[in-house]
Amino acid sequence: MLDGRVRSVLERLELENDREKRENLPREVRSRQVERTTGRFLFALVAPQTDCEVLEIGGSRGYSSIWLAAGVRYLGGHVVSTENDPKKIAAWRQNIADAGLEDWADLVEGDGLETVREIDDVFDVVFIDAEKGLYEPFFEAVRTKVEPGALIVADNVLSHIETLGAYSAARQSDPTLVSVTVPLDRGLELSSVLTGTLE
Predict the structure, then answer these.
(1) Pairing state of beta strands 105-109 and 78-83?
(2) Single pTM value for the model
(3) Minimal CA–CA distance to 42: which of 179, 151, 140?
(4) Strand runs (DSSP E) across 5-136, as ranges?
(5) Dihedral (C-alpha) 159, 15, 48, 60: value to the nearest 10 degrees?
(6) CB-count exposure of residue 199 (10 Å: 0-12, 13-18, 19+)
(7) For residue 197, what pLDDT is reported?
(8) What integer best gives the mean pLDDT of the chain?
(9) Other CB atoms closer than 10 Å to residue 142's CB: what's the count?
């Protein structure tokens, strides 16, 4: 739930993000976190689900991780997030602790594609918010970690349509999914899993 600790960390991260944009810092240095409305949307996706297991690819400093972890805390779930930048890893851990969400979120450090493939778990919701050129291999990796009824959410599909338009098209033509582009903030592709992976 959004108690005082959670709200305080979210607000601090939003201020930091705004400052980094104003100062026009290089993209690899910035947090590059989701918009607040996307955070609220993610919270709303996971909060009503009992024992919701979430995989987040691209945790950065933990902004979206906090929204997800605060959501799964309602009915007993857990978030596994991935990140490979050492500075962002340290910030993620501190921010999750400051928000009081250590019991609902874990971070897996290292190259995202390698770590995702090594994770031995099944997830109800997957959130992809990583390097745009890697969305397709990330999708292929997480497709083996979900079962029918799961939801795969990809961010930035409209803000980076030149790169991710093909990702959305591939999901929408996949007979094992029902997928739709949601024009919220930078654009989200929501893909509901209907059947197991095709052989």
Answers:
(1) parallel
(2) 0.94
(3) 151
(4) 53-57, 78-83, 105-109, 123-128
(5) 60
(6) exposed
(7) 66
(8) 94
(9) 20
